Amino acid sequence: MRWGDLRRSQNVEDRRGSGGGFGGGGGFRRGGLGIGSLIIVGLLAWATGIDPRIILGGMEMIQGTGTQQTQQPGKAGAPDDKTGQFISAVLGSTEDTWTKVFQANGKAYQEPRLVLFSGMTRSACGMGQAAMGPFYCPGDKQVYLDTSFFQQMAQRFGAPGDFAAAYVVAHEVGHHVQNLTGVMNRVMQERERVGRAESNELSVRTELQADCYAGVWAHSARASLEDGDIEEALQAATAIGDDTIQKQTQGTVVPDSFTHGSSAQRVRWFKIGFESGDVQQCNTFAAQRL
Q1: Which in 31, 40, 195, 217 has the greatest CB count within 10 A?
Q2: pLDDT tens digits, residue range 87-146?
Q3: φ, ψ dihedrals at 22, nearest 5°
Q4: Rounded distance, CA 75 to CA 156, Å?
Q5: Mean pLDDT, the chain, as a whole number?
Q6: pLDDT for 47-63, tens place per residue?
Q7: What is residue 69's DSSP assignment?
Q8: Which residues of 52-109 form beta strands (DSSP E)?
Q9: Whole-angstrom distance, CA of residue 181 vs CA of residue 64
Q10: Which SS3 state, helix, strand or coil, does residue 194 take?
Q11: Bridge partners, residue 120, by sequence
């Protein structure tokens, strides 16, 4: 991805410790959360029945807003290191995309803040931890990201590359769009009313819409794309499908327990957004086929 010329968003808060790259120092390098930690999380998920997708974040932090907690101090603005600059560039690109989309519909886009952290941090949704993966909290309208997650995408799930990382950021921003448009609130209310199977399906539809929104952003940013970028995003979508995760963590696939969608579904909806560039095509809640 040619991100060097993209506008840097200033809506970044850097709460990381010393260092500042993927693994420290500013480059796309190895490090961060250990493979052993992910295996432990996977085994705990298998043993307790907790959704193993908690490893990869998403809906697990948007079930409720919780109580606002005192935030850890962080440095505001685009960070100086390469990783921080990359994240700021991707976030700035999503801001430009969604500002235009909202304006076209006669509305103003409220830009989210993205918090970079190491290990754990406080949010209005509770304590965020690296093993949970990136997440969006509607209570403070912020995206939370421990960049060590990107090493795990590459090493554990076979989804390397800067555009795979950009897809993750764009997906979480997609949840912010859902929050602004009222989709998230309606889904949470409906999930409280229905049974577990129906609740899981609503979660899947929510996640797939965020994937489609990520595709809409990629369509808007296609001038910055390089050969192989879309393949990186599709590989990431494949790697974090519920069926793929369940195969890796528990050896079997239980479709009724899906909360994010299968690999094929996640790929399909990202491609719908990317190929059309039209948010109207992202209504997963009305789709008969996911």
Answers
A1: 217
A2: 999 999 999 999 999 999 999 999 999 999 998 899 999 888 877 789 999 999 999 999
A3: -70, 90
A4: 31
A5: 83
A6: 334 444 443 344 444 44
A7: -
A8: 75-76
A9: 17
A10: coil
A11: 129
